[in-house]
Amino acid sequence: MQFEYDDQNIFAKILRGEIPNNTVYENDHALAFHDIQPQAPVHVLVIPKGAYVSLDHFARDASAAEQAGFMQAVAEVCRITDVSDGFRAICNTRSHGVQDVPHYHMHIIGGKQLGRMLQA
Ligand code: 5GP
Predict the structure, then answer these.
(1) Residue ranges in the chain whose pLDDT is less than 70
(2) Atom of ligand 1 nearest to the CA of 22
(3) Cα of 36 to ligand 1 centre, how many Å?
(4) Torsion angle (degrees, nearest 10) of CA 8, 10, 15, 21
(5) Among 61, 112, 113, 117, which is 20 to 30 Å from 5 by CA?
(6) Model pTM?
(7) What atom of ligand 1 comes closest to residue 90's alpha carbon?
């Protein structure tokens, strides 16, 4: 599979500092910030700093250090937002997954009782 990255996507602009964000956590390889349209009391997006379009792109091509940095950011987001009662991690991917922003991101959603996983 060929992955083509569009560096004009909104998260690329956030990473370049062209658009502001409400940062929760940052390390060398990942940035986590509050979603602009939260679906729950906790709704944080974790993104890699590298140019990856999707979870499968990141899982295939990111280095071990990038992958470890990303997962460390996920752990820190869970700690900082205190989702000790649970949460949902979602990575919408391409057309069937209804992915809007073509830069890999993981939604961390929690802070309330969530509904069943899928409605469609
Ligand atoms: P997707 O549908 O691609 O999985 O989710 C993209 C998410 O990015 C949406 O939840 C949307 O609210 C969020 N989003 C889109 N533009 C911005 C933005 O400029 N700033 C922030 N913080 N979130 C955004």
Answers:
(1) 120
(2) 22
(3) 6
(4) 160
(5) 117
(6) 0.98
(7) 4
